[in-house]
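FIELD: query
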Amino acid sequence: MDVMVTAVRLPRPHRVDVCAAAGGLLGGLLLWALGLPVRLAGQSPVLVDGHWPPLVPLAVTAGCELLRRVAPRTALLAGTAAVVADLFTQGSLATAVMYTDLVYAAVLYGTPAAARRIPWVAGLLTVAATVVPYAVWRVPEALLVGVVFGIVAFAPAATGLVVRDHRVAADAARLRAEQTALLAEQDRVQAVTSERARMARELHDLVAGHLSAVAIHATAALSLDEPATTRRALGVIRENSVAGLAEMRRLIGILRDTGGDAGPAAVPTLDGLGSLVAGVRAGGLDVTLEAAPGEGLPAPVELAAYRIVQESLTNALKHAAEGPVGVTLDRQDGALVVTVTSPYGDRAAPGAPGSGAGLVGMRERAALLRGTFAAGPEHAEGGTRWVVRACIPLAEGDLT
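FIELD: result
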């Protein structure tokens, strides 16, 4: 039975760690060659005498430097064992210096739990290394043991914790900045999308009615060989062409936003419904207007109601059968109710094609003001009629 053995490969050491290991090892070898051991007052006696033993802890500590990032816990444990062994030899300053770096790296690159525990353990051991030797020997030089232990263990652990906290705070700040930038980009995209939808509604509402009238009357003029009818149709075509061109120029001026002394463009209100109905009547529709909305309507509500009536009359001009068209505006239960009815059925006169964008635009206008919108055929005593009904609350909306 074959057994597959998978070797666990550690990541390659960072090149900075390689340089630190090589520098520590070469520095330790130089100090060893010069015969500069490290012996402190109160240090444990030399159990392994000789010139060569300090090289073993030195080599082990240098090897641990290669693991300071990829395996900080293993490096610290092995380095601690090497430093303890070094205490019973002639000692090496390079071993002690590299060990301080291992403690620092274990706090900085280790797990969050290790980063919290190592400074506490190092602090407690430093206190113990200060108090116990002095209590045993009763000489001031014994305090140097705690000082050295604090320099070798506690100081690098505390430094690593401070640096780690700064890095965590910097990462959190960078993440917040990225999230803020992402939200800003989402807001920008949403604003652009909303503005494009608003401009699409404005273009459709301002120009589509005039172009529909032009298309219908041009078709009538081409299909009927009557000079009087053709002349009337051409007159309506000219009026709608001029009006549509003026609306288009006004809209282009808004888009360019040239500033200067030009004041804001006038926003249509319900006071202009009479002129709107008169223009549609000139196009051949029999329109009856009943408007009693009262005073004090919010501007967004007036604009939405005007555009809904305008688009409904444009659709009636393009698609409605012969017969009267009714427009009614009234307040009901804190809302403005707009109702436009037109004959529904086969059309004798030539019509104009529709894309359905008008119904979408009217529904969007009502929804922006938290209102409701419905359009469809309804059966009545006089026959089937196409009914457009919008109920817009009188509270301020967010339509702009």
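FIELD: remark
The two ends are 77 Å apart (CA to CA).
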